[in-house]
Amino acid sequence: MKLGFIGTGNMGGAIVRGCVAAGMAAGEISAFDKDAGKSAALAAGQGIRTAGSIADLAAASDVVILAVKPGNFEEVLPELAGALRADHKVVSMAAGVSIAYIERFLGASRKIIRIMPNTPAMVGESMTAVSRNANVGEEEFSSVMQIFRAIGRAEAVEESLMDTVTGLSGSSPAYVYMFIDALTQGAVRNGMDEAKARTFAAQSVLGAAKMVLETGTDPRTLRENVCSPGGTTIEAVEVLRRVGFEDKVTEAMQAAVDKSKKLTK
């Protein structure tokens, strides 16, 4: 499939880089950005094609991926509507923008898919939620899912869960970066070089995540397996419990979910 990206900011650029790194033919990917310098820079780095307009991009694409901010949709969608073929698939990654809202601009007969990826797409480790309207057939949906499985993991979800996904995986890399930084700074205070401490912290988070994904073991059980009675790990875990670590993480995630619900249109 030929992919066309409208918008080449952080998320759009991350997915383009992830697709190219995963082996997709760069010549089959086009990009358009109102800021031509952004799309040109991405094209120069990744070998993809730049489009001169939204119509140009649509003509060269089978799947059009909307990677612009929600506030730009009212400007972009009417222009895109006039350039679409009946067989185009339109993929939106904007938080808070419903499929029904996009249908108002593009038409109820259009094939529309909504996704919520995250920025680890840049290193092939995205977690992407994918939902669709009734116009997207099983085979078409499967082919689009493969795009996002090439840059990490992708799972089909009901659109009603997209606000939850926003707080769970869309925003959570930021929470994890805070955790890695806190571990790093703790090690620095105990005499370790910052760059080395960051490597230790990040690799430990990566390894722990892989244990959850690859063993299928419940995280609570994995935690208990690390905590020897009277040992160092249980000492640290008890401190985290006393300060309400788990509750605070859940509270932070809920704040992101609630904000997504307020923004949804």
User: End-to-end span in angstroms?
Assistant: 30 Å
Q: What's the CATH first level of the largest domain?
A: Alpha Beta
Question: What strand order characterises the main sheet?
Answer: 3-2-1-4-5-6-7-8
What CATH architecture of the largest domain would you give? 3-Layer(aba) Sandwich
Q: Work out the oligomeric state of the chains in this entry.
A: single chain
Helix count from the secondary structure assignment:
12
Low-confidence stretches: none
* Shape field: elongated
Q: CATH homologous superfamily of the largest domain, by name?
A: NAD(P)-binding Rossmann-like Domain
Largest sheet: 8 strands, mixed
Number of DSSP strand runs = 8
Range of strand content: 5-15%
Q: What pattern of helices and strands is seen along the backbone?
A: EHEHEHEHEHEEHEHHHHHH
Query: Mind telling me the C-alpha Rg?
Result: 21 Å
Helix proportion: 40-55%
Task: Count up the domains.
Answer: 2
Strand-helix topology:
Layout: E1 3-6, H1 10-21, E2 29-32, H2 36-46, E3 49-50, H3 54-59, E4 63-66, H4 73-81, E5 89-92, H5 99-106, E6 111-116, E7 126-132, H6 138-149, E8 152-156, H7 162-170, H8 172-189, H9 194-215, H10 219-226, H11 232-242, H12 245-263
Parallel strand pairs: 1-2, 1-4, 2-3, 4-5, 5-6, 7-8
Antiparallel strand pairs: 6-7
